Structure to design on (273 residues):
């Protein structure tokens, strides 16, 4: 007689397979637990943002410029550079005209000097090609407001608008910010103006000597401007000159030659501070 298997009877092979299946489930469950535990306990990795490099050339206007992270470090106005070194700074303001700009760039290149330019937003709008040439030659460009107003007669709000508008115009053309320095038009400023500009991220740069080249239409001569520059030659001097006259371009080469013969270095603003 054949012995019938009980309903609860399980063969040895079935027991083996069942055991393997249970072990596999345990292994998988343990693996899932470890993965979840590891992910939840691992700190997030901070990935640095890409560095935005200055953009130059013809492509600059078509690229959204990077936001500047440079801010003014002091509300105190700069009048002189470092007086402990035998060096001077020539700064060139660009507002309405550009008569001497190309000649200034040629002379700066001849003397291997890095220049410092304070430009208005309207100058940038009118002469974008010159602004690109200034930048491509490696010179510094800072803020001279958008429309060249008297800032002591402007509200804090309008001072901010003037500075921000010029900054945007510069970014539109060459993709850089003019921060952290600005020069008040006409040298017109007071404590309130300096404070308002500082809130916008700017420090004022004045001058130790105004060359008075801008008085060309009033009859001042190149010889008189040259004498004024050389008679005020001193370590750390910051000279104010302009792009919108013909005197600057006519005398600058000779002025640089004399200053260098006296053992002075001619450097940019940031190099001299």
């Amino acid at each position: 007689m054949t012995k019938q298997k009980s309903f609860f009877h399980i063969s040895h092979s079935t027991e083996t397979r069942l055991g393997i299946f249970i072990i596999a489930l345990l292994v998988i469950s343990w693996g899932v637990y470890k993965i979840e535990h590891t992910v939840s306990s691992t700190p997030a990795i901070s990935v640095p943002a890409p560095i935005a490099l200055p953009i130059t050339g013809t492509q600059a206007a078509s690229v959204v410029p990077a936001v500047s992270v440079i801010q003014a470090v002091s509300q105190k106005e700069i009048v002189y550079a470092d007086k402990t070194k035998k060096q001077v700074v020539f700064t060139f303001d660009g507002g309405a005209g550009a008569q001497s700009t190309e000649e200034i760039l040629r002379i700066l290149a001849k003397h291997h000097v890095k220049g410092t330019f304070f430009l208005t937003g309207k100058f940038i709008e009118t002469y974008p090609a010159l602004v690109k040439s200034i930048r491509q030659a490696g010179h510094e460009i800072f803020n001279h407001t958008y429309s060249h107003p008297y800032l002591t007669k402007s509200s804090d709000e309008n001072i901010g608008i003037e500075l921000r508008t010029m900054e945007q115009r510069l970014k539109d053309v060459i993709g850089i910010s003019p921060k952290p320095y600005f020069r008040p038009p006409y040298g017109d400023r007071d404590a309130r103006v300096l404070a308002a500009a500082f809130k916008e991220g700017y420090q004022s740069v004045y001058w130790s000597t105004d060359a008075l080249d801008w008085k060309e239409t009033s009859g001042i001569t190149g010889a008189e401007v040259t004498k004024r520059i050389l008679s005020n030659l001193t370590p750390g001097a910051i000279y104010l000159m302009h792009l919108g006259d013909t005197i600057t371009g006519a005398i600058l080469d000779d002025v640089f030659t004399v200053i260098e013969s006296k053992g002075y270095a001619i450097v940019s603003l940031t190099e001299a501070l």
Summary: Residues 1-12, 32-69 have pLDDT under 50 and may be disordered. The first helix runs from residue 12 to 41.
